[in-house]
């Protein structure tokens, strides 16, 4: 190794064997060559500039990187590039409808479901997953659905109000 060049841990894990993958991101078909050890969260943020998906803990405990793969909520920090071949991925950028906010985003805004906003994209993805899967979730189901997402600012009051508003308005998209 060249003593004059610093190498990051991620760079040291890269392989020389790149793979071609096809996927759909927010309803846009993509085909690209990736190192199979690249994490989905890094691919989204660095390759596609979809920075709404946040990096926080990096070990799947905070939910800041939550996205949907084939309709299922996942932590993008735990998914490798080779695992998303032929997948359909929805990020927070793909939730909004045209130029207007999605009703879940609007509820978070109007009910004070965010403070610093760092956890908000992951929270919104978790709520979207919940309302897509459960017509009229109970308080326990709401808590369970949000249990993989950490917020260090709001105390969850506004978040819960936003979720209940979405449910009351029967926003199932």
From TrEMBL:
What PROSITE patterns does its record include?
A: 2FE2S_FER_1 (PS00197), 2FE2S_FER_2 (PS51085)
Query: Looking at the keywords, is Iron present?
Result: yes
Organism domain of life: Bacteria
Q: Which InterPro entries match?
A: 2Fe-2S-bd (IPR002888), 2Fe-2S-bd_dom_sf (IPR036884), 2Fe-2S_ferredoxin-like_sf (IPR036010), 2Fe-2S_ferredoxin-type (IPR001041), 2Fe2S_fd_BS (IPR006058), Beta-grasp_dom_sf (IPR012675), Diverse_Oxidoreductases (IPR051452)
Q: Name one Pfam family in it.
A: Fer2_2
Key words of the record: 2Fe-2S, Iron, Iron-sulfur, Metal-binding, Oxidoreductase
CDD domains with a match to the protein in the record: fer2 (cd00207)
The secretion signal range is none
Q: Which residues form the 2Fe-2S ferredoxin-type domain?
A: 19-95
Q: What protein am I looking at?
A: (2Fe-2S)-binding protein
